[in-house]
């Protein structure tokens, strides 16, 4: 299992399993940015988004969150030994799963009841009054947090 994110064998996970298909597709620039640091970048998305994300070259593998029991999903993710995860569309469930999967660095949205499950928290620009940034720039803030 990789010990640091600088390990050339390390892999990262982009969790985009809470919003619509547009939100999942907009996570691909963050995956591209993560490839600068990680050898492998996978996606965790909803079953209906899988086929579209499998066509995105920035994702090495696309896993699905079928709504299974949290502990089972966490075990599936833990087997892949991710060094880091960014959660682009957070829910309390997904935040708990990333923690239960023992992913050492977990980046997610600040200012939420479940934000304590993340090791690095990102304040979304629009919460600070930014109305001009494109959502892809907002999602890149998650990758920059690494």
CATH superfamily: Glycogen Phosphorylase B
- Taking all Cα atoms into account, the compactness measure Rg is 14 Å
CATH topology (level 3) name: Rossmann fold
Largest sheet: 6 strands, parallel
Average of per-residue pLDDT values: 91
**Shape from CA axes?**
globular
CA-CA gap between termini: 19 Å
Give a verbal description of the structure.
By secondary structure, this protein is an alpha/beta fold. It has a single domain, classed as Rossmann fold, CATH 3.40.50.2000. Helix content is about 30%, strand content about 20%. Strands 3-2-1-4-5-6 form a six-stranded parallel beta sheet, sandwiched between helices. Helix 5 links the parallel strand 4 (about 85) and strand 5. Helix 2 (about 30-35) packs parallel to helix 6 and helix 4 (about 70-80) packs across helix 5. It is globular and about 40 Å long. It starts with 10 loop residues before the first strand and ends with a helix.
Write the layout of secondary structure elements.
Elements: E1 11-16, H1 21-25, H2 28-34, E2 40-45, H3 50-53, E3 61-64, H4 70-78, E4 84-87, H5 92-100, E5 105-109, E6 120-122, H6 135-144
Helix pairs in contact: 2-6, 4-5
Task: Please sum up the structure shown.
It contains 6 helices and 6 strands, in the order βααβαβαβαββα.
Name the features.
6-stranded parallel beta sheet; 6 strands; disordered N terminus; alpha/beta; Rossmann fold; 19% strand; globular; single chain; 146 residues
């Amino acid at each position: 299992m990789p010990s640091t994110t600088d390990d050339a064998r390390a892999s990262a996970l982009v969790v985009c399993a809470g919003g619509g298909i547009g939100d999942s597709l907009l996570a691909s620039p963050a995956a591209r940015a993560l490839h600068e640091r990680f050898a492998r970048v996978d996606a965790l998305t909803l079953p209906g988004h899988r086929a579209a994300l499998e066509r995105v070259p920035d994702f090495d593998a696309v896993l699905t969150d079928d709504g299974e029991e949290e502990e089972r999903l966490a075990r599936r993710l833990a087997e892949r030994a991710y060094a880091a995860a960014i959660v682009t569309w957070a829910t309390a469930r997904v935040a708990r799963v990333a923690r239960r999967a023992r992913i050492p660095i977990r980046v997610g949205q600040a200012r939420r009841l479940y934000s304590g499950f993340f090791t690095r928290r990102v304040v979304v620009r629009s919460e600070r009054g930014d109305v001009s940034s494109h959502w892809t720039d907002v999602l890149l803030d998650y990758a920059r947090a690494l």
